[in-house]
Write a structure and sequence with these properties.
This protein is an alpha+beta fold. It has two domains: 29-143, no CATH class; 152-251, no CATH class. Helix content is 29%, strand content 20%. It has helices spanning 29-36, 39-57, 65-80, 97-100, 105-114, 133-143, 222-228; strands at residues 152-160, 168-170, 178-197, 206-207, 210-211, 216-217, 240-251. Strands 1, 2, 3, 4 and 7 form a five-stranded antiparallel sheet that branches. Strands 5-6 form a two-stranded antiparallel sheet. Mean pLDDT is 77; it is low at 232-249.
């Protein structure tokens, strides 16, 4: 293609959205969740779960939309507050009320074993994610409603996953080495700042990254970044250098 005399028609890339797409008010986490997961998506899960439970166990589960909503919330909460095993959230010594008060252990396990997103009797041989396809299509439509930034980039994102899937990959240099790689269109911002040496004394490299939580520069690798967070911060010092580096930040990572 590059060696041929192919006519090129420039594409108009003028940004037509709002330059200041700041929301009028900040919503609670539940409000943002409901913007992405609507009643149609929850109702579809309810219907397919009840059908599959009847086919599998020959008895009705009578799952409601509210129960599906709570199940997803509990599942997300478990991802934030991790335990050594799933039943630990209900155990007496490791009881976690935000999970245990919402579902009994038996009901949660029953739902987890029967939850379905689409008709299991109509597989699509051309799609590896056909069991989630209706959910993903509706989710994508809701994600496209999020206001975009003027500058954008395409990033690869690793969704941490160690279960069984043909989509699972191993990428050695990623923070999550095992997972499912997806491509996302994200908002992009460039900021100029002073380059500093890595805060870890044993590291003698200039850092291109800044840890907001620790308020210091660190090299993002297994040795420097992980070793620093296991030692006392009072033992470190940082040398300033009159160099400049470009920092990039991404926003709206949910634009898949």
């Amino acid at each position: 293609m590059w060696g041929r005399d192919v006519p090129f028609t420039p594409v108009d890339t003028t940004f037509t959205g709002e330059l200041d797409a700041t929301p009028d008010d900040v919503k609670a986490p539940y409000g943002y969740f409901r913007e992405l997961v609507n009643d149609k998506m929850l109702s579809n899960i309810r219907d397919q779960t009840n059908i599959y439970a009847l086919e599998k166990n020959n008895e009705e589960m009578n799952v409601s939309v509210k129960e599906i909503e709570k199940f997803i919330g509990v599942y997300l909460r478990m991802g934030v507050m991790k335990a050594h095993c799933q039943r630990a959230y209900w155990a007496a010594k490791t009881l976690y009320p935000p999970v245990a008060d919402v579902f009994s252990r038996s009901r949660y396990e029953q739902l987890a074993s029967t939850i379905y997103f689409t008709d299991n009797n109509k597989p699509d041989a051309n799609s590896r994610v056909w069991k989630l396809q209706p959910w993903l299509e509706d989710l994508k439509l809701n994600l496209e409603k999020i206001p975009t930034q003027e500058n954008q980039s395409v990033n690869e994102i690793m969704v941490a996953f160690k279960g069984r899937s043909k989509l699972k990959q191993f990428m050695r240099n990623k923070p999550h080495r095992w997972g499912i790689k997806i491509w996302a269109r994200v908002g992009h911002m460039i900021q100029y700042g002073s380059r500093q040496w890595c805060k870890l004394p044993s590291c003698h490299q200039k850092s291109h990254f800044y840890c907001i939580k620790c308020n210091m520069h660190l090299c993002i690798n297994k040795d420097s970044f992980m070793e620093f967070h296991t030692k006392k911060k009072s033992n470190f010092s940082c040398a300033q250098r009159d160099k400049f580096v470009i920092y990039t930040f991404v926003f709206n990572k949910f634009r898949i």
